[in-house]
Amino acid sequence: MSPARAALSEGWPVLLTSVFIGATYGVLARQSGLSVLEASGSSLIVFAGAAQFATIGLLKAGATPLEIGASVLLINLRHLLMAASLRPYLERASLVRRLGLAYILTDEAFAMGIGWFRRGHRDLAYYATFGTTLWLCWNGSTIAGAVLGAGIGDPTRYGIDFAITACFAAIVALGARHRSDVAVALAAALVAGALKLAGASVVAVVIAGALAPVVALVMRAPQPAVEPTEAT
C-alpha cells in the first residue's frame, strides 16, 4: 500500500470525527454572531480547532481582541513542541514544502505523522496526504455548519462536544506503542486535568505537553552499573 493510501486507510476514523467537530464549530460560530464568511475564514486562516472554539467562548464573554490573541497564542504554543519533534524528518524538504507542511500541522496530523515516522518510514507523502485531507474535511464541514447553523439549536445536546475528547483519546490509543508512551499520556492527562481544575485551562495543554516528556526521559535514563561483589 502506498503511503498516501495508508494515510487514508488508517486515518479515516479521525477524518470522519473532524467532519462532526468542524460542523459543530460552524454552527456555534454562527450562533455566536459570526457570519458564514468569518466562520469559514477562521478555519481557513487559523486551522486550529482548540483555538477556534476558545475564540468563540471569549467572544461570548466579551473579551478584547488583545485578550483573544494572547489566549490563542498560548493555546497554539504546543505547535512549537510538535514542530520540534517533526523537524528531523522534514529538514531535507525545501523551504516552500516545509512551510506548506507547517500550515497543515495539527494535533491529529502530528499524531498520525509521527506514528508513521516511528515505524521507520521517511517519506512525507503519508503526513502530507493526511494533513491535506484533514484540512479539506475541516473547512468543508465548517462551511456546512455555518450555513445551517442559524437554524439549529445547541448541537452539544447530541453529545457532539465529546467528539473532540473521543478523537484525542483515539489518537493516543493509536500512537501508544511502548510503556513510555502510556506513561507520557497519563502524566499529560493528570497535569492538564489538575491545571484545568485550578483554573488555568488556557495554559494546561502547553504546560502538560512540556512536562510530560520528562517522564519518558526518566524512564529511558540509563541505570548506574552495579559493582559485582564477592560471594561470602
Number of alpha- plus pi-helical segments: 12
Please write the string of helix (H) and strand (E) elements.
Answer: HHHHHHHHHHHH
Structural class: mainly alpha
Number of structural units classed as domains: 2
Largest sheet: none
Estimate the helix proportion, in percent. over 70%
Chart the SSEs and their pairings:
Layout: H1 3-31, H2 36-45, H3 49-60, H4 65-76, H5 78-90, H6 95-103, H7 107-118, H8 125-149, H9 162-175, H10 179-197, H11 201-211, H12 213-220
Helix pairs in contact: 1-3, 1-8, 1-9, 2-8, 3-4, 4-11, 5-7, 7-8, 7-9, 10-11, 10-12
Question: What labels describe this entry?
Answer:
232 residues
What does this structure look like?
- With 232 residues, this protein is an all-alpha fold.
- The chain folds into two domains: 3-175, no CATH class; 177-222.
- 75% of the residues lie in helices and 0% in strands.
- The chain has twelve helices and no strands.
- Helix 4 runs parallel beside helix 11 (201-211).
- The chain is globular, with a radius of gyration of 20 Å.
- The relative contact order is 0.15.
- The mean pLDDT is 82.
